[in-house]
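Lab notebook, bench 4. The sequencing result for the construct came back, and we need a structural model before the next group meeting so we can plan mutations. Quick request posted to the team channel:

Model the 3D structure of this chain.
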Amino acid sequence: MLREQTQACGPARETLIAGGTFVVFDGLVPANRHAGVFGRRIRSAARRGHTIEGLADTVEILRQYGEELLRTGLIDSVDRSSVFTIFLNSSATEVLGCAGGPRPEPPQVPADVPG
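Done. Here's the predicted structure in token form:
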């Protein structure tokens, strides 16, 4: 099901082949709601200097589906260094979009700041 919907689909597929975990959530959410939430994530990630592979393309795909109800899922690498969010049709038989990649490093606290 993970073809080349976005540039993150290939790495997500490779993560699964390498033994990553996969879950599809039960809830259904309108595609345009996902588009709004993940559109804001693009901007917040950019402010932190982080790029989420395939996210801009996925948001555009989600906008095209409007009010259609979708499922979401996650693909997590074995070592938890990468994570991908996938968006599927309501019956979970087709992947519509995929975004993700390496998890961002947590911000480092400077050594001279009291803990």
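Helices lie at 9-17, 31-47, 55-65.
Will bring this to the meeting.
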